[in-house]
Amino acid sequence: MTPAPGRSAVPEDIQPTAARSAARFADIGSPYFGIMLAAMAVVLILSNIGASKGVAFGPIVTDGGFFLFPLAYILGDVISEVYGYKVARKAIFTTFALSVFASLCYWVVIALPGFDDEYGAAKQSALEGALGPVPQIVLASLLAFLAGQTINSWILVRMKARTGEKSLWARLMGSSGAGEFVDTLIFCSIAAPVIGIADFGGFVNYVLVGFIYKTLVEFLFVPVTSLAINWVKRREPSYGAPARAAEAVTNAA
């Protein structure tokens, strides 16, 4: 039987393994990317607010955004794996543009004249205390997340270009470790004075706890992240389409 024009005469299930396992990506025409982008932005904005509070669990020093921030990296992993480096980079810049906008909104709200009674003064003081340091935290988060997420996404996509669809767990763990280290070091260097960490010992504690915690959370969530990635891949109509498969090397560049 003559194969249809443009199709291989060899059935897909018996084509060479290398062809079946080549790196593939999806277009962003479906709603899944938009949902993940919105979730990433919300997580980052909330973690920036939480990070303005120093938190101590006995000798362990961290900040109030510690339980949220790893989720942004997990979402970044899903976007990088499914859509590629170029799309992930757009998500990173969009997320931070929204985070900067949120910070500007906080500044406007604080600057607006409030009621001059006792309740109004207390409310103003509470807003200044809670949201006042956020611009510095946003700066720390902007530089740290931009560098860390870019490295995380780049390494993940480069590894995918080499291994194709295989070894997803290795891509997630390898890229996360490098990205989280750069992210934590930059963020803590800027944010430490804002939340009240002034001595070197406290700073080292802050960096090590942040890096170990974030990396451990990502490693523990690798099975969940893998399930989420595979779920999205199965539902993205364009995932693995010839045009997108041909762009794998470009995405990894």
UniProtKB/TrEMBL annotation:
Keywords: Cell membrane, Membrane, Transmembrane, Transmembrane helix, Transport. The keyword Transmembrane helix applies. It is found in: Cell membrane. Its main location: membrane. InterPro entries: YhhQ. It is a multi-pass membrane protein. Pfam families: Vut_1. The chain crosses the membrane at residues 32-51, 57-79, 91-115, 135-157, 178-197, 203-229. The keyword Transport applies. Involved in the import of queuosine (Q) precursors, required for Q precursor salvage. Belongs to the vitamin uptake transporter (VUT/ECF) (TC 2.A.88) family. Q precursor transporter subfamily. HAMAP family: Q_prec_transport (MF_02088). PANTHER family: QUEUOSINE PRECURSOR TRANSPORTER-RELATED. This is Probable queuosine precursor transporter. It comes from Arthrobacter sedimenti.
